[in-house]
Each structure stands twice: as structure tokens, then as C-alpha cells.
Amino acid sequence: MPRAVQYVQLVERFGERARRYWFDVVVVLLALAGVLELVLRRDAEDAPDTTLWFCIPAMVAAVLTLLARRRYPFGAPAAFWLLGASISFVDGRLVPFMAGVYLAGMAAAFLLGSLRDTVLARVGLVVVLGCSATIIYNIPDHQPGELLFIPLLFGIAWLAGFALHTRVEQVDAAEARAAQAERERESAARIAVAEERARIARELHDIVAHAVSVMVLQVGAVRHKLPHELDEDADALRGVEQTGRAALAEMRRLLGAMRSDGDDLELAPQPGLDGLQSLVSEVERAGLPVQLHVEGEHVQLPRAIDLSAYRIVQEGLTNALKHAHASRADVTVRYGPGDVRLEVRDDGGGGPKGNGQGYGLVGVRERVKIYGGEMTAGPADGGGFVLSARLPLEDDRP
Predict the structure, then answer these.
(1) Fewer CB near the last or first residue (10 Å), C or N of the chain?
(2) CA 29, CA 66: separation in Å to the nearest integer?
(3) DSSP sequence for 258-314
């Protein structure tokens, strides 16, 4: 492994451990600082009255309880305060003598305030205020104002932890809602894709069934016209006819399985680009003026592509009418040598949900993908929304 990679991994591991154990390191340093302070300032005027054999173990035991905060989120900081109050009954000067113990007390109060369990956090506040007042009261020469002021400082540290905990809870709740909304969007998108594929399959069934029916009828007509000396050919055509009829029966059975109970049987002919003028008239009657532009030499499209092209334009106009709040729309159909290009442009405020990711557009994308085409949808230059699609007349996918 290259040295540079090893160095990067080492730095990452060090950074991860530093983020995890920095508080523990600070607690140990506070304990060591307390030991040094007890030893070096033993002759100070406000030094503890008891011997170092009591002071050092008592102080270290109280501070190091904070190392157990991960396993005992409430017990460890609460134990610090209870031990501090108990020590103050033995030597009232020991706990307030060391600045490191004061900082550890602030940290313990903060930890109690940041507990996830609100009830325990409030119990922790009682512990902090009660124990800090007890420690101050046990100082031989304490001032009356200290009984209020110093517990108030530790109460502020508790309040900071409580506020941070509330903020973290709000962030976690927002992240959970966002994740749930994302899962719901993905689920709805999958359902929309499945429904659109079923709809496309039903439409293609009508097209294919019509073509197969014509083929079966033509084969039957040819078979009946054959002379008797071509009986073998007639038998072969009879087999083709029977296979075609069996295929039609299977297609009808499959269509029945795909059709929902609430779906109405579509008896009208499937529309195509020739019916765009009627579609435009319907949209205009609904209140949206539409201009239809046809460019290039009109060619006869394959029936399935013709139907899909119509559906794409229909979806674009539906979006402009229902979601974009547009005042006008333009539909352009361009016939090329090997494809047909469609564009629906409006002057509204955007597509579904304002981002071009509506479930109707999911269906358009599925239709375009079936024929190896291309599709884009999004805000147009100068305002409005544009849906464009290209359908190759022959699948040009590699």
C-alpha cells in the first residue's frame, strides 16, 4: 500500500478517535490538574483541611465518574454531584478549592441537561441545584449571595445542554420526516411507473391484437381460396390461423389480469397525432389557449409510436393546464427523417410540484424509454416550462 494512502488512513483513524474520546481526555486532564493543584497549593490560605491521602482519591474518584457517561448517561454526571456534596460534609474546602472540579461540574450539569429522557433531565436539574447549594453551604466562610449565584451558573450550564438536546431532537425529527417523505416519493414513483407500464401494455394490446386479427383473417381468407390440390399448404395455413387465434386468446387473458376492477373497457379507437387538433380544442375549452405547430413532412408513424406521441403531448398540456397555471401553451411536432420530436411549452410557473418530477412525467419517461428515445422536462429559458421528447422511428439504441 502506498505511504500516502497509509498516512491518510492513519489521519482518518486519529480524527475519528479524537472526535469520540476528546471529552474523556479532557476529564483525565482535569483530574490530573486537580492533583497538581492540591500538591502545589497545599499551603494556600483556602486549601483543604484534610490530608492529601483523602483529598486526592476523593477528588479523582468524583471527576473520573464522568468517564462512564456513555454507559450511564444519567448515573455518571449525577454521581459526580452526589460525590461532591458528600465530600463537602467531610471537608467543605476541598471541592471549591480546585478550578478543574468547577469545570467538571459545569460539564456534568450540561450532560444532565442534554439527556434524551426529559424527566431524567429535570431530575438532573434538581440534583445539580441541590448538590451545588450544599457544597457552597458547607464552605466555612461562604457568602449568602453565593448560595444563589453559583447554583444559578450551574443551572445555566444545564439549560444549555437542555436547549442543545431540544435542537438535536428537532433536527432528528426533521431528518426522519425527510427520510419518510423520500421513501413515500420513491414508493409513489414506483407505483406510477407500474401503473403507466400497465396502461402502455393495455394500449399496445389493442394495437397488436388488431394487427394479429387482420393477419388471422387474411390467412383464413387465403386458405379458403386454395384449390384442393394444395391441401398441404391449406393445412399449414390452418395451423398459422389456429396459432394466431390462440395468441389472441392469451393476450385477452393477460389484459384481463392487468386491468383493474375500476378500469372501463376502452371501446373507442386509440388516438394518434392526427387527433391533436381535437385535443387542442378540448384544452382550449378548458381555458388554456394553445397554438399547434407542425414542422417537416408528415409521415405515417407506427401505430404504437403514434399513440405514445399523442399521450406525451396530452400529458404536457395537462401539466400546463392543471399545475403550471399558464395563460398559453405551444405544441410543436417536428417530423424528421428518422424520428419525430415533440415539444410542449407554456408560460406558467413550472411543472408538477414546480420541479418537473411529477408522476405524469414519470409515465412520459417510461413511454420514451420503451422506444429508445430522449426526454427532458424543466424550466424554460425566459420563464415557463417545457417538455420535449424525441421518438426514433426505429430503435437506435446500441
Answers:
(1) C
(2) 12
(3) HS-TTPPP--SPPP-GGGHHHHHHHHHHTT--EEEEEES------HHHHHHHHHHHH
Contact 77, 124 (CB under 8 A): yes
| 316 vs 85: CA distance, rounded Å | 74
Per 3-state DSSP, the chain is made up of helix, strand and coil in percentages (nearest 5) of: 70, 10, 25
**What integer best gives the mean pLDDT of the chain?**
80
If you count DSSP H runs as helices and E runs as strands, how many of each does the chain have, helices first? 11, 5
The predicted-structure confidence for 100-129, as pLDDT tens digits, reads as follows: 888 889 999 999 998 888 889 999 999 999
pTM for the full predicted model: 0.50
* The pLDDT of residue 267: 44
Q: What are phi and psi of 161, to 5 degrees?
A: -65, -40
C-beta of residue 281 within 8 angstroms of C-beta of residue 320 = no
- Residue-wise burial string across 103-113, b where 16 or more C-beta atoms lie within 10 A, e elsewhere: bbbbbbbbbbb
| Cα 64 from Cα 24, distance rounded (Å) | 9
Rounded to whole angstroms, what are the CA distances from 347 to 64, 268, 316, 324, 332?
A: 68, 33, 13, 8, 15
- The one-letter amino acid at 331: V
The residue to which cell 483541611 is assigned: 49
One-letter identity of residue 159: L
Q: Residue 342: phi, psi to the nearest 5?
A: -125, 140
Maximum separation of any 2 CA atoms in the chain, in Å: 133
- The number of angstroms, rounded, from the C-alpha of 374 to the middle of its chain's C-alpha atoms is 26
Reply yes or no on whether the pLDDT at 354 is more than 50: no
- Residue from 21, 26, 119, 25 nearest 70 by CA: 21
* Grid coordinates given for 273: 397525432
For residue 220, the one-letter residue type is: G
Q: Which of 387, 390, 398, 397 is nearest to 373 (CA)?
A: 390
Q: Residue 187 corresponds to which amino acid? A: S
315 secondary structure, DSSP code: H
Cα-to-chain-centroid distance, residue 278: 41
Q: DSSP string spanning 46-84?
A: T--SS-HHHHHHHHHHHHHGGGGTTT-TTHHHHHHHHHH
